[in-house]
Amino acid sequence: MSADKQQDQDVVAMILKDHRTMEDLFRRMRSVESDRAAALATFSALLIAHGEAEESEVYSALKRFKDVDNEEVEHGTEEHDEGNKALLALLEVSEVGSDEWDSRLEELVKAVSHHLDEEERTILNGARENVPDERRAELGAAFLKEREKHLAADCGSVENVRRVVGG
To answer: Long-range contact list for 71-80, CB < 8 A, 24+ apart?
Structure first.
């Protein structure tokens, strides 16, 4: 595999790209000039697909590398749960842009932003430093396949988010 192809498939790069997309969607959900409901629908699908793919394809594989902090990986899973619960609370507000909606949006932003920051500083830096490029490319392909499977199954619907939160 060429170096360019490996970089395109690097699981760390893919995860970071999703994180930047989530931050952009937060800005759109906060803006009264945007289609906030559409931004929320896109965000909901991305958050669920991203988290489910990380947990099933990436986190378990990273635990096998001795210099990746397993406690941080476990903590990442807990933070996914917190973010998913905050997402569900926002999805259950019927009036987009209401005071309640805005309040729950800020709770979601706080929970997810904290997770993105922490994951990037701990888990992803550990993966960059300790997981070989070829393995990161393999994980990237598995992450992308799992993520796409969830996106194709309407994973961001309120019904599915309820199921994910409910365990």
So the answer is: 72/118, 72/122, 72/123, 72/126, 73/123, 75/118, 76/115, 76/118, 76/119, 76/123, 79/111, 79/114, 79/115, 79/118, 79/119, 80/51, 80/54, 80/55, 80/115
CA dihedral over 73, 152, 92, 102, signed as positive or negative: positive
Nearest to 16 by CA among 117, 108, 111, 110: 117
- The DSSP code for 95 is S
pLDDT tens digit at each of 167 positions of the chain = 445 555 568 999 999 999 999 999 999 999 999 999 999 999 999 999 999 999 999 998 888 876 676 788 888 899 999 999 999 999 999 999 999 999 999 999 999 999 999 999 988 998 999 899 999 999 999 999 999 999 999 999 999 999 999 96
What CA–CA distance (Å, rounded) separates 19 from 4? 21
The HSE-up count of residue 125 (CA atoms within 13 Å, CB side) is 8
What is the Cα–Cα distance from 33 to 42, expressed in whole angstroms? 17
Burial state string for 84-109 with b = 16 or more CB within 10 A and e = fewer than 16: bbbbbbbbebeebeeeebeebbebbb
